[in-house]
Structure prediction request, 535 residues.
Amino acid sequence: MALANAVGKRRNFAIISHPDAGKTTLTEKLLLYGGAIQQAGAVKARGEQRKVTSDWMELEKQRGISITSTVLQFDYSNNTINLLDTPGHQDFSEDTYRTLAAADNAVMLEDAAKGLEPQTRKLFEVCRMRNIPIFTFINKMDRPGQEPLRLLDEIESELKLACWPVNWPIGSGELFRGVIDRRSKEVILFTRAERGRQSEEKHLNIDDPELKSLVEQELLSQSLEELDLLETAGSELDYELIQAGELTPVFFGSAMTNFGVRPFLDAFLDMAQGPSSRLSSEGLVDPLSSDFSGFVFKLQANMDPKHRDRVAFLRICSGRFEKDMTVNHARTGKTIKLSRPQKLFGQERAVVDDAYPGDIIGLNNPGMFAIGDTLYKGKKVEYEGIPCFSPEIFSWLRNPNPSAFKNFRKGVNQLREEGAVQILYDKDESKRDPILAAVGQLQLEVVQHRLENEYGVETRLEPMGYQLARWVNGGWKVLDEIGRIFNCKIVQDAWSRPVLLFKNDWNLNQLLEDHIELELSSVAPVVSGVEPISL
Prediction:
């Protein structure tokens, strides 16, 4: 009964967006309304601004962007919310892919002026692959933007995702006055708050005569007309379709001015999916199962530079987690005592005594965990691993100082383990300098920055000029049977699997035409039971 009660109170979600849509600002405001922080920090590169809670890496603070995923847990309205804050920059989409594997819901954040953008579309497809419920928050309504009906039409036509606006805006830009809640038939008016504080809200019935003195009649009439149109021609509210990821509840607001943040949070808790069953080697695992289980979806080194720590982020899937409990490690078969579990809040941590499905906890990781590892108690289960996606930029990573090789090797191996970047190796064993493979250039810069600041190693990058990577289905045997191939470079990944690098799509298509028997994949299958190559 205690387990069911705890699970029923859990909600877990990740925010996906294009850069500059306001993701980190929305995250801060959600924490503000949840009482987790007393004042929200604006996201600015300037040093005098308050630093945002979710951005803890030094490079994030310097540039004013989010470049690594963090976990933020807080309580709101008798619920425990686990917010998985993901990188907004497109160069770090692979970190977001992994984080979405641990999420039960996703919040798709859009800029009202720009609408759908490439990164949002890409991340939406990852959500659709997992049938995650998607909630849409259309942000920056206090600035000039597109018509709300047009924004809905874009989502429905381009993403093939039906929309049901939970609230509807009254005005936009400087005339943004508030929203009309479709379920309660209330008008919620907002007043601008002092920077970083909660905005004040005024709730009125839609028929309240006082509205006429508070809102311009023309703005209110237009919103009501559009709502009538939605009632007649729009989608119907269907909770089953929301849970299946086929209908998105839509919210309008402004994270910067706090307009609409609390109504979004209240409705999200009502509509969101709780901790769900997870597919494992033993079929679906019910979160209410008495046996504890969970999987590692992220590793992070040196979150606390003073202690040179390594933390494994564990998503709890079933049962109750207790401090000092002994669990089984599915990949290695070892028994591990989890003596110092941590509740995470950005860079801040506190020892946790217990946790439940939907929660994310941090485990000290002295090299024993890898991304995708399952921990369990009772009957053995092993959750689906997290695949690698095709990188797009490739560079040799050179160590110009041989005396620093020990730290160079340690840093490269640890950054590979935590998934900061993919590591490839030349097929020629004598060429042991690693190849960094990433989605974007900034990923490579972060690796260099961290090697220098966390491991004391200066490095040099040498671009390789390739843009595509494909794994060979069937492995080395298939390549040996084909013999010599042209217009690509053959390398191996950390699990000794052959990877072909191409300069462009034309080279890839030419190879496939010349060798129709060759099957290539842009997503690397999960490897279990095999230790990766170390530098």
Observations:
- The two ends are 49 Å apart (CA to CA).
- Confidence is low (pLDDT under 50) at residues 40-57, 59-69.
- Residues 411 and 451 are 6 Å apart (CA to CA).
